[in-house]
Amino acid sequence: MDVQRPTVAIPTGSRTASRVAWLLCGLTLALISCALALAFLNRYDGYLTFLVAVASAALVGGVVASRRPANPVGWIIAGHALCFALGELSRQYAIYGVLTEPGSLPFARMMAWPTYWVWFPGVILMSSLPLYFPNGRLLSRRWRWAVLFAVFVAVTAKSFAAVRPGDEETPVGLTQRRGLVL
User: How confident is the prediction along the chain (182 residues), in pLDDT tens digits per residue?
Assistant: First the structure.
């Protein structure tokens, strides 16, 4: 006897997962809003249009993760968006607290450091997305080693960059161009 199971948008017992997905989405959108407000106060002349894509990714990740919590695709997209939003917020926070209004924000110098590395887990997540798309499973067990190796190489490489930054658009690069010491 062939019995078809009904398709349910949110499986039974996944209310918590749905709430977490929407909480993650809301947190990401709040971080983006704060980053844009600080960029406005900083009179930042860089391009922040990528935050539109980050906000879109947060919404897509929230929808997919809330509807299909067992599928990692939604969580990967939501995590990617959170990493980029947090990176931009830490950058704008450090710029405001160190350059625009020195001493006005607590821990402004410390917030310059996450700017260098917090976006990288988002890159790792998005680069692994094609391996899990569309059904949330790898093609075979052999792909697990490829994913683990790629994550290991990426984390090792980024660990060195987190200790020794050199980007011109980060708070340290901006302070060096303006003749200030961070």
Answer: 454 544 444 444 478 999 999 999 999 999 999 999 999 998 887 788 899 999 999 999 999 999 999 889 999 999 999 999 999 999 999 989 988 888 889 998 888 888 878 888 888 888 888 888 778 888 888 888 888 887 888 788 777 766 765 554 555 555 555 555 44
Q: What's the pTM?
A: 0.78
71 touches 15 (CB < 8 A): no
Residue 139 domain boundaries: 15-177
> Which residues have C-beta within 8 Å of that of residue 26, sequence separation ≥ 6?
62
**Element housing 67 (H / E):** helix 50-67
| CB of 147 closer than 8 Å to CB of 128 | yes
Q: How far apart are CA 137 and CA 135, in angstroms?
A: 6
In the chain, the N- to C-terminal Cα span, in Å, equals 71
| Residue 62 located in a structural domain | yes
DSSP characters over 23-47: HHHHHHHHHHHHHHHHHHHHT--S-
With a CB cutoff of 8 Å and minimum separation 6, the contacts of 160 are none
Asked, for residue 6, whether it belongs to a domain, the answer is no
State the Cα–Cα distance between residues 72 and 17, nearest whole angstrom.
Answer: 12
Domain tally for the chain? Answer: 1
